[in-house]
C-alpha cells in the first residue's frame, strides 16, 4: 500500500513502516502473538498510552517533525500527533467503489458532488477529487482541515473543486438542507465521541441516526454512493449495512459491508473497524 506497510502486530501493539520511519503504536485488536519477538522490532519511535487515555511518544532515533509518503497516488504528510495518530488511517484506502460511482456519473456528463463528513486530513477527499468529484470536506478541527489542504497541495490537487469547511457536521448538514443543497455521494466516518467546532457534543449512539435522517434530505435524484464506517463497539459491518438499508433499500442498487483491516507482510489482517457501502 504505497509507502505504508504494517510489518507485524501482536501483544496489543502494531509495528508500522511509514515511509522511511518505523513506529510502534498500541492496537487493542492485536490480541494474538506477534510473528517476531517485539523486542526485536527496530522502531524509531514508540507511542505508549497512559492510564488516563493520555499518551506519549518515546524517540529512539531522530525523526523529522513531518515527512511525506505516497499512498494510492496521493501525497500524505505524516506527523506523529499527541494522540498517537499519524495523519492517515490505512484501512480507509480502498476507494474502488467510490471511484466507480464517480466514473459512472461523469460518463453521463453529469458532475458528482461528494459530501465527506468527519473528513480528518482528507485522504478520502483527495481520492474522490482525483476521480473527478467536486468535494465538500467537513471537519470540526481547524488543524485537520489545514493539514488536509496541505495534502491537497502536495498531491497537486490544490486547484481542484474542493470546499474546505471547519464546522460541526450536524450544524453544517442542517444548513445544507435549508439551502436546498443536493449530493450524488456521501462518505462519513464518525468517531464514537467527538466535539464540533464550537464544542458541540457528538456521541455516535445518540447522534448518528438523527444525522442520517438529515442526510437523506440531501440525496439528489441521481444519488449513487453512500459509505458509512465506524470504529465503535456494536457497529459491526451488518449493523452498519442495516442503517444504510433503512434509507436506501427502496432505491435498488447494491450493498456491501466489510470489516476494515490492514494486512501485514504475512497476509494476516489487523481488524480496524467496520464499513458498509451502497452504490447504484
Ligand atoms: C476518525 S476521524 C476520521 C478519519 C478519516 N475518515 C480518514 O480516513 O482519514 C474523526 C474526525 O471527526 C472529527 N469530528 C469529531 N466530531 C466532530 C463533529 N461534531 N463535527 C465535525 N467533525 C467532527 C474529528 O475532528 C476527526 O478529524
Give a verbal description of the structure.
With 280 residues, the protein is α/β, with parallel strands linked by helices. The protein folds into two domains: 75 residues, Immunoglobulin-like (Sandwich); 189 residues, Rossmann fold (3-Layer(aba) Sandwich). 24% of the residues lie in helices and 33% in strands. It has six helices and 16 strands. The strands form four sheets. A seven-stranded mixed sheet has the order 10-9-8-11-14-16-15, with helices on both faces. Strands 1-2-3-4-5 form a five-stranded mixed sheet, with no helix packed on it. A hairpin with a 5-residue loop joins strand 4 and strand 5. Bound molecules: S-adenosylmethionine (SAM). The site of S-adenosylmethionine has 20 residues, from helix 2 and strand 12.
- Output the CATH homologous superfamily of the largest domain: Vaccinia Virus protein VP39
- Quaternary structure annotation: single chain
Global Rg: 19 Å
Bound molecules: S-adenosylmethionine
Strands of the widest sheet, in order across it, are 10-9-8-11-14-16-15
Which CATH architecture of the largest domain? 3-Layer(aba) Sandwich
The fold-level CATH name of the largest domain is Rossmann fold
CATH class of the largest domain: Alpha Beta
What fraction of residues sit in β-strands?
A: 25-35%
Q: How many domains in all?
A: 2
Tally of helical runs: 6
So what's the overall shape? Answer: globular
Helix content: 10-25%
User: Runs with pLDDT <50, length 5+?
Assistant: none
Q: What are the defining features of this structure?
A:
single chain, 280 residues, alpha/beta, Immunoglobulin-like, Rossmann fold, 2 domains, 7-stranded mixed sheet, 5-stranded mixed sheet, 6 helices, 24% helix, 33% strand, globular, binds S-adenosylmethionine
Amino acid at each position: 500500500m504505497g509507502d505504508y506497510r504494517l510489518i507485524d502486530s501482536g501483544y496489543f501493539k502494531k509495528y508500522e513502516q511509514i515511509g522511511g520511519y518505523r513506529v510502534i503504536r498500541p492496537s487493542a485488536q492485536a490480541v494474538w502473538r506477534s510473528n517476531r519477538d517485539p523486542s526485536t522490532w527496530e522502531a524509531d519511535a514508540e507511542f505508549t498510552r497512559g492510564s488516563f487515555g493520555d499518551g506519549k511518544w518515546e524517540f529512539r532515533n531522530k525523526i523529522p517533525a513531518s515527512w511525506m509518503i505516497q499512498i494510492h497516488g496521493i501525497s500524505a504528510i505524516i506527523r506523529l500527533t499527541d494522540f498517537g495518530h499519524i495523519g492517515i488511517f490505512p484501512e480507509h484506502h480502498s476507494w474502488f467503489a467510490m471511484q466507480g460511482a464517480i466514473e459512472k456519473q461523469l460518463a453521463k456528463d453529469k458532475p458528482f458532488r461528494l459530501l465527506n463528513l468527519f473528513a480528518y486530513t482528507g485522504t478520502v477527499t483527495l481520492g474522490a477529487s482525483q476521480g473527478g468529484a467536486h468535494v465538500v470536506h467537513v471537519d470540526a478541527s481547524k488543524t485537520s482541515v489545514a493539514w488536509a489542504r496541505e495534502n491537497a497541495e502536495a498531491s497537486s490537487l490544490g486547484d481542484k473543486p474542493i470546499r474546505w469547511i471547519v464546522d460541526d457536521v450536524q450544524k453544517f448538514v442542517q444548513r445544507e438542507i435549508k439551502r436546498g443543497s443536493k449530493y450524488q455521494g456521501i462518505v462519513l466516518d464518525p468517531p464514537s465521541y467527538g466535539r464540533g467546532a464550537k464544542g458541540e457534543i457528538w456521541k455516535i449512539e445518540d447522534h448518528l441516526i438523527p444525522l442520517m435522517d438529515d442526510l437523506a434530505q440531501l440525496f439528489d435524484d441521481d444519488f449513487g454512493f453512500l459509505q458509512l464506517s465506524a470504529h465503535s463497539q456494536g457497529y459491526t459491518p451488518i449493523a452498519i449495512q442495516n442503517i444504510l438499508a433503512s434509507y436506501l433499500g427502496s432505491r435498488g442498487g447494491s450493498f456491501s459491508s466489510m470489516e476494515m483491516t490492514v494486512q501485514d507482510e504475512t497476509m494476516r489482517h489487523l481488524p480496524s473497524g467496520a464499513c458498509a457501502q451502497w452504490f447504484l
